Amino acid sequence: MAGETNLATMRFRTGELFDQVARKLPDKIHGATMEGRFQFLASGDPLDRIFSLQSGKVKLTRTSSMGRDHVLEILGEGDVLGLESLAGENVWFYTATSLEPAEIQWIRVEDMRKYLASNPNLEVQFLRLFGAQTQQRYERTMDLRDLDVPGRVAAVLLLLMRRFGEIGEAGVVLPRGLTQSELAQMVGSSRETTNKVLADFMARGWIQQQTRVITILDAERLIRRAS
């Protein structure tokens, strides 16, 4: 829980830093609106832009050597993509797809580097935040690997609840844009196995599921199952 709180704080701070650059370089900032599901980055493409998500949700996916897709993370407002370019990376290692109507802003890496060259303290802040976020995401991945499938399902549901949950009549409603396959890809299991776990959680009264909408009814039980 504390780790997720720290990660949320770092996301907010990174978004603030991007906005600070945007205010200084308004003529270098570009924008785009995606009306629904739209892939705007592909793994292997040149990493020549840094993006800031202004609204909506975006999934990051990567395809394994076995041809299986894995959802690495779901991003939301304030998240920044492409900071690895400041650490020397020059290609995207994931694919980014909007899950719903979304707005993004972006700046060319070369323009960002020129600005940061005259503002080294800002560059240090970006790199520190990027490094800390990368470390926490790695630790979260390692924690998931130590759990069985029901534990991973519980952990992913809690992750989505803490980041995107909205209070509803019965409980906390999770984002509606995710498909069953995408949820399974976050868990690292098959869709069939993930659905069986969800059905078990429903039978226990921990969650409610209706037409692709999952509502958390008993977060404490999920926390115990994920520990």
Automatic annotation (TrEMBL):
Concerning PROSITE patterns, the annotation shows: CNMP_BINDING_3 (PS50042), HTH_CRP_2 (PS51063)
Q: Which UniProt key words apply to this protein?
A: DNA-binding, Transcription, Transcription regulation
Q: SMART domains, from UniProt? A: HTH_CRP (SM00419)
Looking at the record, the residues that make up the Cyclic nucleotide-binding domain are 40-86
**One function term, GO molecular function aspect:** DNA binding
Record keyword Transcription regulation present: yes
GO CC terms, sorted:
cytosol
Tell me the InterPro entries matching this sequence: cNMP-bd_dom, cNMP-bd_dom_sf, Env_Response_Regulators, HTH_CRP, RmlC-like_jellyroll, WH-like_DNA-bd_sf, WH_DNA-bd_sf
The signal peptide annotation in the UniProt record is none
Check the record and name the Pfam families matching this protein. cNMP_binding (PF00027), HTH_Crp_2 (PF13545)
Q: Which positions fall inside the HTH crp-type domain?
A: 147-220
Keyword DNA-binding found: yes
Protein name from the UniProt record: Crp/Fnr family transcriptional regulator
| Annotated organism of origin | Mobiluncus porci
